[in-house]
Design goal:
155 residues; alpha/beta; Rossmann fold; 4-stranded parallel sheet; 5 helices; 48% helix; globular; binds riboflavin
Length: 155
């Protein structure tokens, strides 16, 4: 029986791009480092891990679209931290970001990971980016798992 549950995540030979927002940089830097380390733990070579920075989460989809158009990557990981403020800006950016990332992913039939935190406050963001949750690491692992799952369902 064909199964898509992997006991180990072997990303040998994969090439993966990370696009990370600079906004809330202390947190996105940590997520980027954790993400790179997760990919290394899955046997990716450093030469096959490409990191691109953009100003904020709103710019993640367009950067992912440009990278997808290069047809060089098995997956693209988008990382950002959106923290709620006094206005609705976070909702507009989060909606545009999630919809844009989904579009790039489906249009290119390529895993484009949503490693974007959308939190009520800085404390929640710190717990997820820096604390035990380590969402950057999780995004890296999820990227490799999704690439393997896609290969598994290909004819
Ligand atoms: N980008 C983020 O990644 N996280 C944020 O929390 C965030 N907050 C913003 C708040 C306001 C009021 C504005 C105008 C922008 C914010 N951005 C944030 C930046 C946004 O993603 C984008 O880089 C800029 O709007 C330029 O297109």
């Amino acid at each position: 029986m064909k199964s898509n549950t992997f006991t180990t995540l072997d990303g040998s030979g994969m090439r993966i791009a990370i696009v990370a927002a600079r906004f809330n940089q202390e947190l996105t830097d940590a997520m980027t480092t954790d993400c790179v380390n997760a990919l290394r733990a899955c046997n990716l070579d450093d030469v096959n891990i490409v990191t691109v920075r953009v100003p904020g989460s709103f710019e993640l989809p367009v950067a992912a679209a440009v990278l997808a158009a290069q047809h060089e990557f098995d997956a693209i990981i988008c990382l950002g931290v959106l923290i709620k403020g006094d206005t609705k800006h976070d909702q507009y950016i989060a909606d545009a970001c999630a919809n844009g990332i989904t579009r790039v992913s489906i249009d290119n039939m390529l895993p484009v990971l949503f490693g974007v935190l959308t939190t009520e406050n800085r404390e929640q963001a710190e717990t997820r980016a820096l604390g035990e949750q380590k969402k950057g690491w999780e995004a890296g692992m999820s990227a490799v798992e999704t690439v393997l799952a896609m290969r598994n369902i290909e004819k």
